[in-house]
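Dear support,

I submitted the protein below through the web form. The confirmation email said the job was done, but the results page showed an empty box. After a refresh the structure appeared. I'm attaching both so you can tell me whether what I see now is the final result or a partial one.
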Amino acid sequence: MSGIVFFATQQHDAVVEFYTNRVGADVWLEQPGCTILDFDGFRFGFCDRDYTDDCGILTFVYESRTAVDEMHDALNDVARDEPHENDTYHIYQFFADDPDGRAAEFQMFLD
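What the results page shows now:
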């Protein structure tokens, strides 16, 4: 079993381009007005609407600090912070903004 999280967006093409070209997600399915993306089994979709859902956080989980750091380098222009350890959740992380201003988190779980 699996699931998909959908978001409404007024910037469909820009958001899809961000997650495919910059984050590395793949287009899993195109539907009328909606694109469903897949990132290593994490499926999320964006539907062209006259309003934008910009709440919530899309979290991408990596296996190493190096991978998180590489994503930070690739997204430096939209990163909210530097990669850092979060002792509360025992993760290494940073946040970035997608074209809608939605939070995207890039993290790894610490041993």
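Response: this is the final, complete result; the empty box was a page-load delay. The chain has one domain: 4-109.
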